[in-house]
TrEMBL record:
This protein's name: D-ribose pyranase
Domain of life: Bacteria
Example of a GO cellular component annotation carried by this entry: cytosol
PANTHER family assigned to the protein according to its UniProt record, in alphabetical order: D-RIBOSE PYRANASE (PTHR37831:SF1)
Coiled coil start-end: none
Recorded GO MF terms: D-ribose pyranase activity; intramolecular lyase activity; monosaccharide binding
Family annotation (Pfam families): RbsD_FucU
């Protein structure tokens, strides 16, 4: 019986050690979707990716990070908030059609990206640029033209300070 008790204690200690090691390795904040977290961590200065709405035509050759759960969930704002907590963005490109057909989204992006270069191109041009994106994040967003091409900035302190985004604006 003593051997059984010792085995039980050893077993409990083993699981305590294993669990404490797992907790040390788990992320404590930020993006917990493994595919998105890995994709964002792999960005280099000047790399770009697309955050798109539910209906965007994603090219087969580009890595797809599909976050869409249901219509409208998660929306563009929610995805952007999580993404901007992880990376520094120096340039944003959107479809110029957004201004007329999704003014709410357009004004939101103007507010959030006031320190970044904001380019407006046709939706057709944005679709072409998607072919060369490092990856594409699909949201459940349903508002028209909610597609944003985000270009990564350098993580070097002296450069990234120019691109600080106020979390209250998201």
């Amino acid at each position: 019986m003593a051997g059984l008790k010792a085995c039980h204690v050893l077993s409990e200690n083993f699981f305590e050690i294993i669990l404490s090691e797992r907790v040390k390795k788990m992320k404590k904040r930020g993006v917990i979707n493994q595919q998105l977290s890995n994709a964002l961590a792999g960005l280099g200065h000047g790399d770009y990716f697309l955050l798109c709405d539910a209906g965007f035509p994603i090219p087969k050759e580009v890595e797809r990070v599909d976050l869409a759960l249901t219509f409208g969930i998660p929306n563009m704002d929610q995805c952007l908030k999580a993404i901007l907590d992880e990376i520094v963005v120096q340039k944003v490109t959107i479809a110029k059609e957004m201004k007329d057909l999704n003014d709410e989204g357009y004004q939101f992006l103007k507010r959030v990206f006031k320190n970044q270069k904001l380019c407006e191109i046709s939706q057709a041009e944005l679709v072409k640029l998607a072919d060369n994106a490092k990856f594409i994040v699909r949201s459940g967003e349903l508002r028209c033209y909610s597609n944003i091409l985000l270009e990564a900035a350098s993580g070097v302190e002296t450069f990234k300070n120019d691109f600080i985004i106020d979390p209250a604006q998201i």
